[in-house]
Design goal:
The protein has 3 domains: 222 residues, 3-Layer(aba) Sandwich (Rossmann fold), CATH 3.40.50.300; 55 residues; 46 residues, Beta Barrel (OB fold (Dihydrolipoamide Acetyltransferase, E2P)), CATH 2.40.50. Helix content is 24%, strand content 36%. It has 8 helices and 20 strands. The two termini are 15 Å apart. Bound molecules: adenosine-5'-triphosphate and magnesium ion (MG). Magnesium ion binds next to helix 1.
């Protein structure tokens, strides 16, 4: 059963499509991240699901039931926004209790439910605190508990962590995932941060200019991007402009490279090579492809050492594990090798729906 389904949903403002022909099926209990650049239609998509706005075309279904004639209040959707949006004049307890009070849940049941939720988000001791007495991370925990209080069918999170600093964000995203797993609730999580999306999602849905570019498990999005946009958006990448010749052959400048054999029409394309798949090979040992360049930069990234290597005026990024002892120095001449299976041609178009 699909927890959330969008069938060719569009939303226009005047002639401008904020969301265009988007189809997406989120299984019950699944955690799907919605990512894409600012203005691509992520929030609009959530608002369509929650029922704050109605689509101009297509259909929204929750638990396989069309929501065409169902209002916001009857959709049983829990929402958490970026900027906490707690009621400032209510304690943490009363914020979480709010939806239960409006639904006239008996006091005893309400108490135990709120206490259970505050424990779930690690705030048992802070039930009496006012929002202004809580840190940003704690406020978002309260917002999450409040969204879960009404036992929603679907949880929608719109960049819930973007106002928090990196450390809090890191720990809280895994906590959100844990809570989601425990409650088994269908969740759509909007984020700018592709790394965040890849690290916590069952599947990632990537949007661009109101359209869905690709929907798939993190590994698939990362390793098999449908097109240049996805390749560019997801992770650090080397993208070489050249020509796909078909049958696993790619021309980059004077070099005829052996690459992945993909179902892409011959013609102008980009070749994607992940920095961690480039290997520095001192000897002439066998490799599918070999390019020679000069080290122009070195950056320490904790466990990784990232090199910039200039090959005929094109900068290649190469990631080495920091345990590799013989890392080259600036101005060293190096050979970059890569196997055909690590070089993926991507076209300008082509989408992979979920
Ligand atoms: N009420 C509205 N009237 C006119 N245009 C709108 C309205 N709401 C959204 N838009 C436009 O629709 C597009 C998508 O907006 P949306 O808020 O969904 O983007 P987003 O992906 O959430 O961006 P961000 O990452 O910056 O939050 C934008 O170009 C926006 O300007
Ligand atoms: Mg938004």
């Amino acid at each position: 059963m699909a927890g959330v389904e969008l069938r060719s949903v569009s939303k226009r403002y005047g002639k401008f499509y904020a969301v265009r022909n988007v189809s997406l099926k989120v299984e019950k209990g699944e955690f799907v991240s919605l990512v894409g650049p600012s203005g691509c239609g992520k929030t609009t998509t959530l608002r369509l699901i929650a029922g704050f706005i109605a689509p101009d075309g297509g259909e929204v279904l929750l638990d396989d039931v069309s929501m065409a004639s169902v209002g916001v209040r009857n959709r049983q959707v829990g929402i958490v926004f970026q900027n906490y949006a707690l009621f400032p004049n209510l304690t943490a307890f009363e914020n979480v209790a709010f939806g239960l009070r409006t639904r006239k849940v008996p006091e005893e049941e309400l108490r135990s439910r709120v206490e259970e939720l505050l424990a779930m988000v690690g705030l048992s001791g802070r039930a009496a605190a006012w929002p202004r007495e809580l840190s940003g991370g704690q406020q978002q925990r309260v917002a999450l508990a409040r969204a879960l209080a009404i036992r929603p069918k679907v949880l929608l999170l719109d960049e819930p962590l973007s106002a928090l600093d990196a450390k809090v964000r890191n720990s809280l995203r895994f906590e959100i995932r844990r809570i989601q797993r425990e409650s088994g609730i269908t969740t759509i999580y909007v984020t700018h941060d592709q790394e965040e999306a890849l690290s916590i999602s069952d599947r990632v849905a990537l949007m661009n200019s109101g359209e869905m570019e690709q929907i798939g498990p993190p590994g698939e999005i990362y390793l098999h991007p449908a097109n240049r946009f996805v390749a560019d958006f997801v992770g650090v990448n080397n993208l070489l402009e050249g020509e796909y010749l078909g049958e696993g052959r790619f021309r980059w400048r004077e070099h005829l490279l052996s690459v992945e054999d993909v179902p892409l029409e011959a013609g102008p394309a980009a070749l994607m090579i992940r920095p961690e798949r480039l290997v520095l090979a001192p000897s002439e040992e066998g490799a599918d492809n070999r390019l020679t360049g000069t080290v122009t930069g070195r950056v320490f990234l904790g466990p990784l050492l990232r090199l910039a290597v200039d090959v005929e005026g094109e900068q290649f990024l190469v990631d080495l594990l920091n345990t590799e002892t013989a890392a080259p120095s600036l101005d060293d001449r190096v050979s970059l090798t890569f196997s055909s299976s690590d070089a993926r041609p991507v076209g300008n178009t082509g989408k992979i729906p979920g």
